[in-house]
Amino acid sequence: MKLRDFLVKNLVSAETDAIVSKIPKPVGSFGYDPWGYHSEAFKLAISAFKPIYENYFRVEAKGLENIPQTGRALIIANHSGQLPIDGALVGYALATNPNAPRAVRAMIERFFPLTPFVGNVLNEFGAVLGDPVNCEKMLQREEAIIVFPEGVRGSGKVWSKRYKLQRFGLGFMHLAIQTNTPIIPVGIVGCEETMPTPFHLNGLAKLLNIPYVPVTTPFPLPAKVHLNFGEPMYFDGPVTDEDKVAIKVEKVKDEINKLIQEGLTERQGWFK
Amino acid sequence: MTDSKKPEILITGAGGALAQEVIDRVRDQYHVVLVDFRRRVQFDEDMSSYRVEYNKRGFEDIFRKHNIEAVIHLGRMGLYESTHRNRYNHNVLGTQRLLDLCHKYDVQQVIVLSTYFVYGASPYNPALLTEEYPLKASELTMDLVDSVELENLANIYLWKYPELNISILRPCNIAGPGVLNSMSLLLSSNYAPVLVGFSPMMQFIHVEDMAQAIVLAFEKNQPGVYNVANDDWVSYQDAVIQCGCNRVFIPSVPEGLPRRISKTVGWKGWPEYLINYYKYPVIIDGSLFKNTFGFKPKRSLADIFAHYKEKKEMGIL
After folding, report:
1. Which structural domain range is residue B217 located in?
2. Mean predicted confidence (pLDDT) in B58-67
3. Which chain A residues touch B242 with a CB distance below 8 Å?
4. What is the pTM of this model?
5. Min Cα separation A59/chain B (Å)
6. Number of domains into which chain B is organized
7. ipTM here
8. What is the CATH number of the domain that holds B197?
9. How would DSSP label each residue in B278-305?
């Protein structure tokens, strides 16, 4: 028996099994999709993440009814917290959404496929190499994809820049227009406080050839996280001018900013 | 003896399992001329059979003697056979000679069997590669240059001589009874090397389905380049387990170590120049072929793996 089968048998509860089984995700005869997602491994990921989502970060998700039950969708969110915890939290929220559970796909950095175990495990959990071809193909196959258009500019923000949205890449808007995909904006509040970072060790990051080395807490702090999902936004093409694309991206950015501000107003404190 | 009423088609690599399946499907409608560079293939009395190398002068005699209307070019010196120089001479220069003869003798259709290896196994490959994706295999190793060059050559002839009606088929891993490619040798063995921490997604097509795909491409004659694959995927380690192989874990770091181990052990099914294919995925999109030719594979992954497992249990492999 493979390790995965053993873990699934012993760690996945009947409740999680029932929730994930409801997800309308087409897979092949051995439970895989072309990107390496595996339905049993996904159940394992959800089971392992449940206490982190419910007890550690005590996540409150609002607006989940805005996620379409089926069909392609681009979930666009602000990025923060040094580690990609925000992506995992959004993924868990969508997988356990009582209205319409979805196996959302997250894009991962290019060094993961080179890393033994990590690349394969992330693929089995639904993460995919960040590549426009992958995104387009997945949207054509009616997948939901989470994109952080700030990239490492957002995740690696220092404390003084918290909740200040960084420059958004335009790629997601091109994809949305090309594939006629609705955009669901998400404002994430709380992840900024999980790993407060006064500064980075830029020299060391350059030496290690990684995006940043934060000077921060040794582990993520249990800040309370709020996920605010906005209403779907639709954008028409064709693209005739990059400046017009940038204006459309600004509309999404404004919406995310609004959802962040709502979250900041509603929360009682970092840990409450 | 030639049945003059039937149109004549030439099939290269006639001794291989895939060719035998193709021959079975076309023998009623066509007079089949069999060619193999390894041996004279004995198939049926009413078929003409030759043992000849494509880049030797005697090869042209076949075109002089028969009125060849179409060529199904399956003959290839395998990746584990001979040196890469010999493979280049046979596969690339031999194919060039074949295509020149096809042009000279007014052959109306040519099917060329290629391989998904031409895309190259890279950690940055997106999934579901379409036919337009760059062919990066020769970046990896000199040993795959002949596969890419053969494709480029066939592509040049496809555009230069449209009257040849060339279709290039790039299948995923062909497996099943009688198949002797690297992957099939590996799945047949009791011990299959796997890299620690890596288990790329793979695609397999049953040899009977692949034969059917070739016959469809031949009968419907829509020149172009096509990936051929099932709409089903499995990780490499799951595949070897399903085939009843015991996994032999090979350290994946440092990067050169697996290559050195492969070279030292001399595994035919796990040659050093294919190691990246057991590390990173090369998943192709077969939808163009499926939609153009109405291709529906009949054999599942489970059927393919069951063949290897059952043969092992019976002690045949």
Report:
1. 8-313
2. 95
3. 30
4. 0.91
5. 32
6. 1
7. 0.91
8. 3.40.50.720
9. GTS---B--HHHHHHHT------HHHHH
